[in-house]
């Protein structure tokens, strides 16, 4: 077990005295805990410190691992250019990690470097570690827009690479918590902010890392968290490992949550295969959901699966309910995977002879022709969750006051430009948001006047 331990730390620039200029006294508990965390890392005598950072290069579908022999940075953007940090990279560990990732087709590597300078989320923990006069090299890894499961697996790869080389490695999971703790704070308040911090500190403080995987994207977005995926990578590095965890501090006096915990490896523990457990739980949930699907959703699923596996359109079955075979209506088919949208295509007005044909055509389009996504692969089919919306009649309205985001969808149009947004969508809480998104989809300038509004109801099948 080459992963010797880890620390979870925040990265507020004002914690550096020449940046804070006295303001740092407001987070004195965090400073004291940071010193203890640095001492903890030093005690573990790492050959290499792996820093996961939200402020390095970040891509939607790719983990960036910093290239080069060494890097440096300073706090000039925070008014303290004289405070500089320099570090050497562990080239051999990086090469081994990239080799493992490449072999398995993971979207990660050293390509796409945009700025070689160390970011503040990396420099702040190294600033405290320098005081301990420890000799070490680093690996700097950015986050990505990939799933939490992908971040956890990256941590597993880090552990494998360290084991192959016999490196003593300590993980530094750099990340602030919610930025939405105080109305008077720089980012305002959302009720999800304190809730997020409470849940994360419970999971991190007890070492119950499996809980980190059960945080929906929309919840994390509303909480405006910074470091969640950084913590998940660290959790993956401890997969199947018992750890001694210690919560050192938590505070958020400026409206941003700062939490510090330390971890030390104890030994192997196969009951702590958190990703396996989570994926099995999700598989069971999906099987239960499939068993309860109605004829509309079953038809959408069968249509897409047939097309992906054979390249042919489904022949509409004869045993469908009468309303599917005889009625005509616009239909939208939405696909989700791991809680994220995987495709959504629909028709405002019917273009086929029946709702059944409309569903089949749009299911294939949602899975294979949505320009925002790559076509669904066969191995993804069992992970998809379907939603079918059958649109009712549209009616023109005079003002947004006649809308209700839960009850009505909206269609906006001007000239040949037209955009639609379905009702009752996660993350769309106000009529203003609903109209704004529809206008963006239509390609209409938000400053334009004379935009026509229509509303409609849907019958949603899930």
What report would you give on this structure?
The chain contains 13 helices and 18 strands. The chain is of the alpha+beta class. The chain has three domains: 270 residues, Protocatechuate 4,5-dioxygenase, Chain B (3-Layer(aba) Sandwich), CATH 3.40.830; 99 residues, 2-Layer Sandwich (Glycoprotein, Type 4 Pilin); 70 residues, Hypothetical protein ph0010, domain 2 (Dna Ligase, domain 1). The protein has a six-stranded mixed sheet, with helices on both faces. It has a four-stranded antiparallel sheet with strand order 12-11-13-18. A four-stranded antiparallel sheet has the order 14-17-15-16, with helices on one face. Helix 3 packs across helix 5. The chain is globular. The chain starts with a strand and ends with a strand. Its EC number is 1.13.11.74. This is 2-aminophenol 1,6-dioxygenase beta subunit. It holds the Pfam family AMMECR1. InterPro entries: AMMECR1 (IPR023473), AMMECR1_dom_sf (IPR036071), AMMECR1_domain (IPR002733), AMMECR1_N (IPR027485), AmmeMemoSam_A (IPR027623), Xdiol_dOase_suB (IPR004183).
